[in-house]
Design brief:
The protein has two domains: 92 residues, Resolvase, N-terminal catalytic domain (Rossmann fold, 3-Layer(aba) Sandwich); 45 residues, Arc Repressor Mutant, subunit A (Orthogonal Bundle), CATH 1.10.10. By secondary structure, the protein is mainly α. The protein is built from seven helices and three strands. A three-stranded mixed beta sheet has the order 1-2-3.
């Protein structure tokens, strides 16, 4: 295996939240913009670099035009070495990665559809439910003159959560007698 020297440690792909399914990723964009200052790009797996076969091929064309190297360690893929075989491997591995991402998306969609059909709540559990807090306590505290900050500290939730609860309660229609 070739030895690599890291001459700088820019935040390429680290500390930047990004979905695995999204084409636009700030870390990758930064890496591609700085390509002229780099010797090349080294990744552990090919699927970390491209989100679709088309995206992968576009990125590789940029790397090749800049005369830089690319290596995906797990797949043993090295660009520009053995160009014909690497192009073939790139197409196969890229198509397989795109297929797997689409299958994951389908399974998630199927699971959400099943949950909706069974009237299950989708998404993150509500903090009030997790902590056993009744929203009427928050409303009563506010009605008795407590500030948002006081309620937040009393109940142990963020002020923005208190605001959200009070807003949702005030938007609910009142029963007509």
């Amino acid at each position: 295996m070739k030895d690599y020297e890291v001459t700088s440690s820019p935040p390429y792909g680290t500390g930047l939240p990004a979905s695995g399914a999204k084409k636009y990723r700030p870390g990758l964009k930064s890496t591609m913009n700085d390509l002229t200052q780099l010797d090349g790009i080294l990744v552990l797996r090919l699927d970390q670099f491209g989100r679709s076969l088309q995206n992968l091929l576009e990125n590789f064309n940029i790397i090749r035009l800049n005369g830089k190297f690319f290596e995906a360690i797990d797949q043993g893929l090295k660009i520009p070495e053995h160009k014909a075989m690497n192009n073939f491997m790139l197409a196969i591995l890229g198509a397989a990665a795109e297929f797997e991402r689409e299958r994951i998306s389908e399974r998630v969609g199927d699971g959400m559809a099943r949950a909706r059909k069974e009237n299950k709540k989708i998404g993150r559990p509500e903090i009030l439910t997790q902590r056993g807090i009744d929203s009427t306590r928050i409303v009563q505290s506010r009605d008795s003159g407590k500030s948002i900050e006081e309620i937040s500290q009393l109940v142990g939730i963020k002020r923005s959560t208190v605001h959200g609860i009070l807003k949702s309660v005030s938007e609910k229609p009142t029963p007509q007698n």
